UniProtKB/TrEMBL annotation:
UniProt keywords, alphabetically: Hydrolase
Native source species: Lysinibacillus irui
InterPro entries listed in its UniProt record: NUDIX_hydrolase-like_dom_sf, NUDIX_hydrolase_dom
Co-factor(s): Mg(2+)
Domain of life from the UniProt record: Bacteria
CDD domains noted in UniProt: NUDIX_ADPRase
Nudix hydrolase domain span: 1-138
Name the record gives this protein: NUDIX domain-containing protein
């Protein structure tokens, strides 16, 4: 089964808001968002996920990127070989200030604003997202569909 997921790209003054997570290998960062539930629109799912993970509602703007993740093609294939997820990344703005997440993911330990030019020094998933994101920030034309990247 293919799972839809919606993600928020929240940028303020050259920094991006990400969820900060931890596993045995250390810290890693993800875009806020998550899986669409049955009966939800993308916007409803993204609002719910942002409240759960960053503690704020968002104003949802344009769709910037679409990414697929087909588990058997990536480094953790032994754990998620059957996974097939399509992720939709929307440009968003915070409605007010983010506060405590209401239902963070299991590995999530908080949120963090990171300078976009420093993303290559962090363990960000999907890592292949850094270049298209930087192109977008520079005002360069980017491809919306990024394919099966990690």
């Amino acid at each position: 089964m293919i799972r839809n997921s919606v993600k928020a790209i929240i940028i303020v003054n050259g920094e991006i808001l990400l969820t900060k997570n931890q596993d045995p290998e250390g810290f890693f960062y993800l875009f806020p968002g998550g899986g669409q539930e049955h009966g939800e629109t993308f916007h409803e799912a993204l609002q719910r996920e942002c409240l759960e993970e960053i503690g704020s509602s968002v104003q949802i703007g344009e769709l910037l990127f679409i990414r697929e993740y087909i588990g058997k093609n990536h480094e953790h294939a032994a754990f998620d070989a059957d996974a097939h997820q399509v992720e939709y990344y929307f440009l968003c703005q915070l409605n007010g200030v983010s506060c405590q997440p209401t239902n963070p993911d299991s590995h999530q330990i908080g949120t963090e604003w990171l300078p976009i030019e420093m993303l290559h020094t962090k363990r960000l998933y999907p890592k292949a997202f850094i270049e298209p994101l930087q192109q977008f920030i520079r005002g360069q034309k980017t491809t919306i569909y990024l394919g099966d990247i990690n």
